[in-house]
């Protein structure tokens, strides 16, 4: 019985460590240790039911071990704040007053497409609509809108033109523009190469959201080429 308790504890700690290292992409609405507990209980309950050669008591002992580990973690969670941050993680601010925090995205194994998808799910379609955005420790996305966000008379979906230094050929074709058109815009903004650009989006009104690595974002308007609409 003692060996079952020890083995279950080791598996639990290993799974918890892996889930924390994998970042917020893999977590839904639960804390990491709650997600691990859910996975383990489901598996431990199935093993003795599927294999009659394994005594039922072994499965029950493992599930009870998980219960005691859960109660122990909750106790530490309430009594020790540093422990809570280590086990459950802490919120990650991915958008602030300067724009996208690239280091926080990478730390949580997220990229630009993940961020834009989360924003759309929250009802925001333009990166400059949000003053602050963060991923909670549970992985849930939360955003605070900008109070001074301009009210657009014409609604148009922004598309990503440059993503982490690379042009999106599909969106260049969609907007009926080309690399030369955006290279000219970058030169006007005193940017030597698209490789230094983390994100550039364009909407149908000619509004551009531009952010280079290590710099504050810029939002401005340009004249679209004739026939460029979507």
From TrEMBL:
Membrane topology annotation: Multi-pass membrane protein
Keywords of the record: Cell membrane, Membrane, Transmembrane, Transmembrane helix
UniProt-annotated location(s): Cell membrane
One cellular component (GO) term of this entry: plasma membrane
Highest taxon of source: Bacteria
InterPro entries named in the record: DUF421, UPF0702_alpha/beta_dom_sf
Transmembrane segments: 6-23, 56-76
Origin organism lineage: Bacteria, Bacillati, Bacillota, Clostridia, Christensenellales
Protein name from the UniProt record: DUF421 domain-containing protein
The YetF C-terminal domain, residue ranges: 81-202
Signal peptide (UniProt feature, chain positions): none
């Amino acid at each position: 019985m003692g060996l079952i308790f020890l083995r279950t504890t080791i598996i639990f700690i290993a799974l918890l460590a892996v889930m924390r290292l994998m970042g917020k992409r893999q977590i839904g609405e639960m804390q990491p240790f709650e997600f691990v507990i859910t996975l383990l209980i489901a598996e431990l309950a199935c093993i003795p039911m599927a294999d009659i050669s394994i005594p039922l008591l072994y499965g029950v002992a493992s599930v009870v071990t998980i219960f005691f580990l859960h109660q122990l973690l909750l106790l530490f969670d309430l009594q020790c704040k540093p422990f809570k941050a280590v086990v459950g993680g802490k919120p990650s601010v991915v958008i602030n007053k300067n724009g996208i925090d690239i280091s926080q995205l990478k730390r949580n194994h997220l990229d630009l497409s993940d961020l834009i998808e989360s924003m759309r799910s929250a009802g925001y379609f333009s990166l400059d609509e949000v003053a602050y955005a963060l991923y909670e420790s549970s992985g849930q996305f939360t955003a605070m809108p900008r109070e001074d966000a301009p009210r657009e008379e014409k609604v148009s979906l922004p598309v990503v033109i440059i993503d982490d230094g690379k042009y999106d050929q599909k969106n260049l074709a969609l907007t009926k523009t080309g690399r030369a058109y955006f290279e000219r815009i970058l030169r006007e903004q005193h940017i030597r190469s698209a490789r230094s650009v983390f994100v550039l989006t364009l909407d149908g009104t000619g509004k551009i959201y531009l952010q280079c690595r290590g710099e504050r974002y810029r939002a401005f308007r340009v004249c679209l080429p004739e026939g460029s609409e979507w």
